[in-house]
């Protein structure tokens, strides 16, 4: 009897042990299966070209040419119907040619070759609905815009009777220009926070300016330095994040300008691309994701955009900050992303941490 009882007890113990192992294994498996998959990094882009600017999730954009369609926009804006804009200014936004982010993308600066410039509230606040125009002005053939210190803006006015110049505004003083300086075919502007200088690209040169104020408080852009472009047709000007480089497109090439050495070099991938309307960068660790729009000789816009990822070299500055450099390392493929019926001129990453 004792032996039989011992065997039955051991059998029972073995059964319970197996049950617990299976039970725990089941829940471990269930727990593992229930774990959310690692989320893809946020890759959102703004598009500009015609009357509407829009924000899209690039992770949901198909590269299948058979589909040739974009997902629904996450956000969009157009001037028509905006009651805070005068009707005559609404009509100045028939096309859009620049988008710049303010306050990490909560606000946007937009320009149009039709003459419109605007500061738009993208992310709603309790006081200001999304899409509200906070400021607007008219600048002939406006092609780019950039925030300046002291709640000011600068607009690049390209070729036009009243254009070919840089125009400075003070947001507190409305749509009246506070300073102007000539620049033939002005197309791109970038403020360098570290150097406290404005870089602006024209047809044949890249200029650097100091924003000055005289004793009476009058603003001026003082030409500090000028650099002849390697070839004509200066077009897009963009900072490479966490880098001394500025990206510059011309009629026939894409260059990188080193602000330290004050020298130009061809972009190792896009150097000989023609008709480049824009190049935009997003850093992801040791790699740089690059978007670009290449038009044709027939059109100023495109129904597709290019995309590639490229390894970058990283060094440390004297201040202990990372600095990247685009060199000859090959990209991880170049993809042409079809945009369906959408015509684009500029595409910009929604990035909040670009260092200039």
TrEMBL record:
Q: Pfam families, from UniProt?
A: DUF6528 (PF20138)
Name recorded for this polypeptide: Uncharacterized protein
What is the protein's species of origin? Planctopirus hydrillae
Its lineage opens with: Bacteria, Pseudomonadati, Planctomycetota, Planctomycetia, Planctomycetales
